[in-house]
Design goal:
Order of helices and strands: HHH
Strand content: under 5%
Number of helices: 3
Shape: globular
Largest sheet: none
Distance between the termini: 32 Å
Number of strands: 0
Structural class: mainly alpha
């Protein structure tokens, strides 16, 4: 996989997950907001993975 070279992973994850734009992260949201967005993304991704697992 290719990694982002010019952005921290946290910022790149928020942007690529479409939780916020770079402009919003720079001007609207603070650092704590970014961590909350990342938590939402992590929990949603985990729940989606669990929901898509085959049931025995």
């Amino acid at each position: 996989m290719v990694e982002y070279l010019n952005l921290p992973r946290t910022v790149a994850t928020c942007i690529s997950s479409r939780l916020a734009t770079l402009h919003e992260l720079d001007s609207v949201y603070g650092l704590e907001d970014m961590w909350w967005l990342l938590e939402v993304n992590t929990v949603d991704s985990h729940n989606t993975m669990i929901a898509n697992q085959p049931r025995d």
